[in-house]
Every structure is written in C-alpha cells, then in structure tokens.
Write a structure and sequence with these properties.
- The N and C termini lie far apart (about 70 Å).
- The chain is built from 14 helices and no strands.
- It has helices at about 20-35, 55-65, 70-75, 80-90, 95-105, 115-140, 150-170, 190-205, 210, 225-240, 245-255, 265-270, 280-310, 315-340.
C-alpha cells in the first residue's frame, strides 16, 4: 500500500514537520468518499472548515457540490473524479489527479468513513478551542482596550458558548478529566502601578473604615503582594469586631498576625496606611479588576495546555475547560459587585408627589468619592 502523501506533491517537504494523525484521517475520509460517494450521507455534519489541511477541505467541498455519479458507472468511468478535481482546483491549484488516486489507495476501509469524520470533527474542536483560549489571553493582556474587563469577559462568554455546543456533539465517557500536567500558576502583576493601587486602597480604607464593611467582594488573594493582602485581612478583622481603626491599631493587628519581620518595620507599615488617596471602593475595584484579568490569563494558559496535548479527548477538553472557567466565574461575580454602583434609597412616591429630591452630598473629602474613569 502506498504511503499517504501531501496534497502538494511537488513542494519541497524536507523542512516540514511530520503530519499529525488528523492528516491521515482526512486522507482516509476523502479516499472513502472518492471511491464511494454515497457514503457522504453516512458521515454526519462535516464542513470544509473542519479540515486542518486547506486543500483537503476544498476537495471535500467539491465532493459535496458535484452531484453523485451513478454507482455502477463510477466503477469504470473517472468522469466524476475529473469533475470534482476541476471544481476544487480554482481554490487549491496544487491538487492533481494522481493525488486523488493516492487518496483512494491509502483509505484502509471506506466503510469506516463515519469514524474518520468523527476524528476530523474532534481535531477541529481541539484547534478551535485553542483559538478561543488565545483570544481570551489576548483580551486579558491588551492594555490598550478601553474596558479590558468587559472585553475579556465577553471572550470568556464566547468560549463558554463554544463549550456548550461541543458538549452536544460529543458524548461523555468515564475518565473525563484531562491528565495534562499543568505548570504552577504565575504570580499576579506586581508592577509599580498595581502596587500603588493597593497601597492607596489600604491607606484610604484605614481612613474610611466604615466603607470596608461594604467591600466583602474583595479578598486577600486578589492582591498582587501577599503583604498587602494580609493587611487587608487586618483591616477587615478590625472592622468586623467593631474595633477602632487607625494606623496604630492596624500595626497592632499586623503584629499579632506575624507580619512584622526584618523586611517590614513598624514605621514602614504605619507609613503605608497613613496617606489616604481617594475612596476605598475605587481602589478596591481596581484591585479586583487586576485579579480578574490575571485569572483570565491563567484560564487561557490552562486551556491552551489542554488543547496542546493531543492525548485529550473532546470530552476531556470540555470538562477541563469548564472547570477552569468556573474559577473565573467566581471572580467575575465579585467584580460585578465591585463595579456596580450601590443603589440609592429614595423616599416612597405618593400618587401626586413630585420626584424626590436628591439626597445631601457625602460629607467626606472630595478625594473620597470615586475617581472619574
């Protein structure tokens, strides 16, 4: 039996990597359909874009376009094959009549056409999922976007919808979790801008502890610097107990939590929480948004690792990707609380009453209001 070959037989293939298994599945399916065109009705939903090889997809589209020949006549007359080739050549000029005959020869069992088609659909699902993960990663790292969190979550939603579609195409089976080893999660962005935002948050929260009670959506793990997350725990603990909050009490709480060491002096810690700028809610939202984008990057990296591992079945890809997205969804819920303005309470209307007047302005300093975005 001749070995399968590439559609472009005249090209120099010495520098190309060896074909992937799906290449041979595509050749086997096309050979089955060229030999027995009636098997097109047996393979289920399959489109030209499902093929990894462009020439193969073009040839498949031609097979679907050209009316099927008479089965008896097809056994002895190559007219239908020539028509298919003529139909495909404008888009894939490298196809040759000899390659079509090679496809027929290398097909092991034409009756397995439906199985070959399932292989092609599965590989297309893996590649498409990888493309979704790449778009998610790009959105989460693009600093030029006007609203990076919203754009990133829109990409996450598109990925989730794709997984939902896949779940309806591939039946579940035991052992559905990917076995792909994953690299440790990278630390969050600890650049100066991120650290400054966290410092501003801690100082403004120390100055306005009443607002800390309304920020249950912010967790210590959202902080880029673990010390900052630990200090946020100090602040939330003090406010939860109803204890006084100021730089000295925060220092005392930090001492009891073992945060003071050779690198963290008492004076430095007090200075950190003593210069408030703006509102805690504003800076807290910034911290949560950074954590959201960092989590999206981790999710994209994890899904990419799954799709790069050819050992994973479609259902393993679906299950692993859904679990990764669940981590992002939990953070998304908290970000939504952080970014949604708190509802204002208005007096009840009477039937003939005029619209209620706006409440009095906040008595805090102007910098304590949310910074204009």
């Amino acid at each position: 039996m001749p070995h399968p070959t590439d559609a472009y037989e005249d090209d120099d293939l010495d520098d190309l990597p060896p074909p992937q298994p799906v290449h041979y599945a595509e050749q086997a399916l096309l050979g089955a359909l060229l030999l027995h065109p009636h098997r097109l009705a047996e393979i289920g939903v399959l489109n030209a874009e499902h093929f990894d090889n462009f020439a193969h997809g073009t040839l498949f589209a031609a097979i679907r376009t050209v009316p099927a020949p008479n089965p008896e006549q097809h056994l002895t007359d190559p007219a239908w094959l020539n028509t298919v080739l003529d139909n495909a050549r404008p888009e894939a000029p490298g196809l040759t009549a000899s390659y079509l005959h090679t496809l027929i020869q290398v097909c092991p069992w034409p009756k397995h056409a439906a199985t070959y088609a399932r292989m092609i659909r599965a590989d297309h699902a893996r590649r498409t999922l990888g493309a979704h993960a790449e778009r998610l990663a790009l959105a989460a790292t693009d600093a030029t976007l006007p609203n990076p969190a919203a754009t990133t979550l829109a990409q996450a939603d598109a990925l989730a919808r794709f997984l939902e579609d896949l779940a309806g195409q591939f039946a579940p089976h035991p052992g559905s979790l990917p076995r792909t080893p994953l690299l440790p999660e990278p630390p969050q962005d600890a650049g100066e801008e991120a650290l400054d935002e966290e410092r501003f948050l801690l100082a403004s929260a120390t100055a306005h502890p009443a607002e800390v009670k309304e920020m249950r959506w912010l967790l210590p793990e959202d902080f880029a610097l673990s010390l900052h997350g630990a200090l946020w725990q100090c602040l939330t603990a003090l406010t939860h107990r109803g204890a006084p909050v100021d730089p000295v009490t925060v220092l005392w709480e930090a001492q009891h939590r073992g945060l003071l060491n050779a690198n963290v002096a008492p004076g430095d810690l007090m200075a950190l929480v003593s210069t408030p700028v703006g509102s805690p809610e504003y800076w807290g939202e910034k911290v949560v948004e950074r954590a959201l984008l960092a989590r999206a990057r981790i999710v994209a990296t994890r899904i990419t690792a799954y799709t790069d591992d050819p050992a994973n079945t479609p259902h393993q890809l679906i299950t692993g990707s859904r679990r990764a997205l669940a981590d992002l969804h939990a953070l998304r819920t908290r970000w939504k609380y952080a970014s949604t303005p708190a509802p204002t309470t208005s007096p009840a209307r009477t039937r003939a009453s005029a619209p209620p007047r706006a409440g009095p302005p906040r008595t805090t300093a102007p910098s304590a209001s949310r910074i204009s975005r």
